[in-house]
Structure formats: structure tokens, C-alpha cells
Amino acid sequence: MAEVFDLxxxxxxxxxxxxxxxxxxxGWRVAVVDDQPYGGTCxxxxxxxxxxxxxxxxxxxxxxxxxxxxxxxxxxxxxxxxMRFKRSFTDPVPEDREAGFRQAGIATYHGEARFTGPDRLVxxxxxxxxxxxxxxxxxxxxxLGIPGEEHLVASxxxxxxxxLPDRIAFVGAAYISFExxxxxxxxxxxxxxxxxxxxxxxxxxxxERLVRHTRELGVELRSSVDVTGIERVAGRYxxxxxxxxxxxxxxxxxxxxxxxxGAGRIPHTEGLRLGEAxxxxxxxxxxxxxxxxxxxxxxxxxxxxxxxxxxxxxxLTPVAGYQGGIVASNLLNGNSRTGDYRGVPSVVxxxxxxxxxxxxxxxxxxxxxxxxxxxxxxxxxxSSRRVNEPCAMYKTVVENGTDRxxxxxxxxxxxxxxxxLFALAIRRDLTATDLKHQxxxxxxxxSDVPYML
Length: 453
Ligand SMILES: Cc1cc2nc3c(=O)[nH]c(=O)nc-3n(C[C@H](O)[C@H](O)[C@H](O)COP(=O)(O)OP(=O)(O)OC[C@H]3O[C@@H](n4cnc5c(N)ncnc54)[C@H](O)[C@@H]3O)c2cc1C
What we know:
Elements: E1 3-10, H1 14-25, E2 30-34, H2 40-45, H3 47-65, H4 79-90, H5 93-103, E3 107-110, E4 113-117, E5 120-123, E6 126-135, E7 139-141, H6 155-158, E8 167-171, H7 175-186, E9 190-194, H8 204-216, E10 220-222, E11 226-233, E12 236-242, E13 252-256, E14 258-261, E15 265-267, E16 287-288, E17 301-303, E18 308-309, H9 317-333, E19 346-348, E20 354-358, H10 361-366, E21 371-377, H11 382-385, E22 393-399, E23 405-411, H12 415-427, H13 432-437
Parallel strand pairs: 1-2, 1-6, 2-3, 6-17, 8-9, 8-14, 9-10, 16-18
Antiparallel strand pairs: 4-5, 5-6, 7-15, 11-12, 12-13, 19-20, 20-23, 21-22, 22-23
Helix pairs in contact: 1-9, 3-4, 3-7
This protein binds flavin-adenine dinucleotide.
Flavin-adenine dinucleotide is lined by residues 10-11, 13-16, 33-36, 40-42, 45-47, 50, 112-113, 136-138, 155, 176, 268, 271-272, 305-307, 315-318, 320, 349.
């Protein structure tokens, strides 16, 4: 006998929660399923725990920068204690989330959900029949197809380390590698990062500055190599890499106690047996949806968050939450809401952070836009000097004629906060003049904004 629901949501993270709660509030019979502890990646294995750790790295670095400038005595990261502090955020999440669903009258299931038909799923031994299904199954590390791949640990494992190994290698030069490399280095590990194309989605000039800074911190950063294999050698790992175009069999190696996957993530849909439900996917496994986030091939099914294939939407928590809200509206009111992905900021939580929103300089020009670009090293501005941060730059892109802000790229202290002002401007069609004429609290990093335009 199948349990019958109006809605089954697969995934209890940022993308799945809004459809579950809102449809339940409208009187629907709703179930949620997760094969991991409830709460999703951001709260348990991503953004939130990461930023607790990065906070300590930031403080340790600030203390180092201020030596001789009024501060004496170093601040050292106590990794086990920091992990305990991190767990004070993550440990309560699964129980709290599940209790929240249950109190709302939502049925909760644990285990891997698999489709057995267009409106049927099994979880463990139980069959669920659903009028609608929301796939909010998140993402997983991208398979690399290299020998020794099984030796890689995922970002999730890194965030659970009770002890930080002495030598850590990161495979891939995407944002997770950069963030963890900065953190591990501030915790005094020897760190190597190997991959092709550092932080590809971010402004090249700012990335170049951050790469230089990362190397000055002592991170061995190779950002134009292909990792070709990982071997276990005498209790350690040996990571092999080739420079693209190099001689076959040539190349170099790095040895490490731990090798972490930081080479990108893909939609986590392989276990769902989407073929059984006629749910079409793109080549990465992302659920193909129309502008209402409804499956193009099975109208009962919607998708939100990292598992959905949506052009222009970044795999970030605010996007997953936003799409969850869109799906909820469309389920309840019929297909009427679509997404607007202009002005979604993204941040690399290095120390200092790198932040971006909107278009890059090259992207704007490729689209034939007539833009003016302002870019500067701002390490000598008050906001950078006050905290003795040598790594600080910005670039803004404004459309001539309309004066609309098209893109902003920030590197330096509080970039992760200031970027939100530019995001607001882009999403609300504010002009550069609007931002210039705003009165800002002073002295703050936000009060630098008028000078960036
Ligand atoms: C290390 C790391 C750091 C990050 N940092 C940031 C950041 O700073 N800022 C930011 O905005 N974003 C960040 N992200 C990305 C962000 O976490 C994701 O975009 C967001 O969590 C996606 O939410 P979601 O609801 O789509 O999926 P998730 O939160 O991943 O939830 C999906 C859930 O579905 C479960 N599931 C999958 N398949 C099945 C199945 N067949 N049956 C049952 N359950 C299933 C999964 O196990 C998972 O628990 C980070 C990610 C990582 C990994």
C-alpha cells in the first residue's frame, strides 16, 4: 500500500523547505525525504560551518597584520576547540529541522528516494504516491575520472576534521579550495592547491591579485595544471599533475596527508532513477525545467536549488531558497512566477574575501554594451590601511547613457558585506549616481562605494 501525498519534497535544504512549508500551510498533505541528516548542505556541510571556521582564520590573520601596530602576541587557531564551536551550530540542526517539519504536520522520511514511476517513489521499504514531487536534492563532488580518485575526501569530510593534518592538498582551483586553503594556512598547515583556471567566474584582475596574495601566504598554488592521479605511498598521498600541453609522462608531484576535492560540484540526481519518472536532465544531471521550474518532461515534477538546471542561476543558498519560493507559488497558484537572476552576489570567503555581482568587464563588452570601467588597487585607502590589509582592489562596470550599474567586483576587508549594496542597485535598477548620492555611515567600508563609481 502506498502512502498518498499531494507533495513529496526530496531534500531538506534551502531549496526544499519553502515548498514543503507553504504547501502544507495551504492544507496539502506533504512529505519530505532526505538521505542525510535534515538541514541540507548550507547549514550542515557548507556555508554556515565554513564561515565559523573562516571567522577564526580572519581573526588570526588580522592579529598577525597588526603586530607592531599596537598589538602584541599572536592569535593561534586551536583547531579542536574551533571544531567544537562549529558543532555548536551544526549539531542541533537536524533535530530542530525535523521537529519543525513535524510540528507543521509534514511527514518525514529518512533514506534515499528513488522513482518507480511518474508519480511514485520508494524510500527504504515504503512507497509514496505523489500528486507533485519537488526535486531539491542538491549537489555532490564532480567525479574526476582519474586513477586514485577514491583517496579524495569531500569538503564535508574536511569540515569534520578533528585534527588538521600537517600537509593538505586541494584538487581543483574553485572557490571551496581557495576558502579551505586560506583557512588551513592560517591554522599553520602546509597547503597546496592544484587545478586548471583559478576562480573562473570571477574578475581576472582581482583573481590575479588574490592568487599573488595566496602565494605570499605560503600556499603552493598551481592554477594551470591537470591533476592526473593520486597514489598512496608510505602512509601519505602523492598527487600527480601535468601542465596542460606538457610532455606525456612528464609532470610533477605533491605529497600530502590529506587530499581534498575542490574541483566543482554537479547535481546530485544519479540515485533518483529519474528515467523511471520520465524526468529529463542535462549532461551534468541537472533537472531540465521550464521558466516556472517545472520539469520539461514530467509536469508533476518541479526542481529547485543545485539540482535544477537553470541558465544563469548560480549554485548558491540564496538562489536555492528563492527558487523554492517560486516553486511553492507555482504549485499553489498555477504556473505564474519565474526567476530573475540579475544581481545575485557571490563571495569567495578567503581572507580577505573576493566578491562579485553582475557582469564582468569582458562579459559586458561581449554583449555589446557601452560601459565605463573603474578599477584600482585600494590597499592605500583608509579602510584597508586601518586593518593593515595589503590585498584590496575593486572594479566597477557602469553602462554609459543609462548610468546603470552592470557589475561590481570587490577584494578586501568587508567585501562580502559591501557587495550587497551593488546587488541591491542592480536588482532595483539604481544608477551609479543614486549610490554616489547616498549618505553612508562613516567610517565604514560601505562609505568607500561613492569613490568606486
Ligand atoms: C563546502 C561548501 C561551502 C559552500 N559555501 C557557500 C556559501 O558560502 N554561500 C552560498 O550561498 N552557498 C554555498 N555553498 C552552496 C550551498 O550550500 C548550496 O547551493 C545549497 O546548500 C543548495 O541547497 P539545495 O536545497 O539545493 O540542496 P542541499 O542543501 O544540498 O539539500 C539537498 C539534500 O537532498 C538530499 N538528497 C539528495 N538525493 C537524495 C535522494 N535521492 N533521496 C533523499 N535525499 C536526497 C541530500 O543528501 C541533501 O541533504 C557551499 C557548498 C559547499 C559544499
